[in-house]
Amino acid sequence: MLPQEHDPAEVLPFPGHAGDVERYNSRVAARIVIIEDEKDIVELVRYNLRKEGLEVLGFGRGREGLEYIRRNAVDLVLLDVLLPDLDGFEICRALRADDRTRSLPVIFLTAKGAEIDRVVGLEIGADDYVVKPFSPRELVARVKAVLRRKAPAEAVREVAEGGEVRLDASTREVTVRGQLVELSALEFRLLHYLVSHPRRIFSRDRLLDVVWGRDRFVTPRTVDVHIRRLRAKIEADPDNPRYLQTVRGSGYRFLPQPEAAE
Predict the structure, then answer these.
(1) What pLDDT was estimated at residue 151?
(2) Three state DSSP letters for the chain
(3) For labeling, which of 34, 73, 144, 182 is most exposed (least CB within 10 Å)?
(4) What is the value of pTM for the model shown?
(5) Nearest-5° angle of CA 16, CA 19, CA 21?
(6) What residues contact residue 141 under an 8 Å CB cut-off, 6+ apart?
(7) Rounded Cα–Cα distance for residues 101 and 77 (Å)
(8) Are 251 and 15 in contact (CB under 8 A)?
(9) What pLDDT digit, counting tens, does each position of 131-174 carry?
(10) Pairing between strand 251-254 and 244-247?
(11) Distance of alpha carbon 29 from alpha carbon 198, whole angstroms
(12) Rounded CA separation 51/260 (Å)
């Protein structure tokens, strides 16, 4: 039974679902968000992309999809134009105006096939434009092509810093409050990735992919253990962490400065 329209079209076994070791160690090439209010289209796209090892999250409303993208790690967005709340063109402009999502690949998947619509979509920053009805095989090929083109853009910063934490990838040196801190290779990679993406929330399986590798046999608990070790090394009070924060039900994030109270 599909969830209601305002929820993600599929609730995947993200952090907190213990015991599904195989799911966390299966190869996932990329994570795709589709913002589309036609559930049949979402199911068709999900079925075909999952056969290629791609993970798909669906949202029926533009605002919720946009908010999810801004707060989580996503590799590509499939975007309808005619949505119940926000216009798809408006969403694409918002993504391109935000430093956090400026380079995020976007493919329009829409019934608006007039030349002017295609031109507008590409001019505001879309990477591709697919018109309904579409061939699922062609869509998969286009998604994979865009992901290949964008892959080199995700370079890791040599120096990553936030607050009183500084990491230098060239020397493997870590300083916290001006003092050198000893980290293992895995601890360094994990902390460097989080500091390089401040405020972004990463699920445990995403961290497993980028830090441990997508084919490594480890469980989500491995991330928890390393986060705990990092807190002991960089936090003034590990039981009340300032930098490495748990976002309940979602994962972890690095917060360079405490958020102001609203």
Answers:
(1) 61
(2) CCCCCCCECCCCCCCCCCCCHHHHHCCCCEEEEEECCCHHHHHHHHHHHHCCCEEEEEECCHHHHHHHHHHECCCEEEECCCCCCCCHHHHHHHHHHCCCCCCCCEEEEECCCCHHHHHHHHHCCCCEEEECCCCHHHHHHHHHHHHHHHHHHCCCCCEEEECCEEEECCCCEEEECCEECCCCHHHHHHHHHHHHCCCCEECHHHHHHHHHCCCCCCCHHHHHHHHHHHHHHHCCCCCCCCCEEEECCCEEEECCCCCCCC
(3) 182
(4) 0.53
(5) 100
(6) none
(7) 11
(8) yes
(9) 999 999 999 999 988 887 776 544 556 899 999 999 999 899 99
(10) antiparallel
(11) 23
(12) 43
Q: Count CB-CB contacts under 10 A for residue 32.
A: 23
- The amino acid that residue 109 corresponds to is L
- As a whole number of Å, the CA-based R_g of the chain is 19
Structural tokens at position 182: 């000893």
Return d(Cα 175, Cα 167) in angstroms, integer: 7
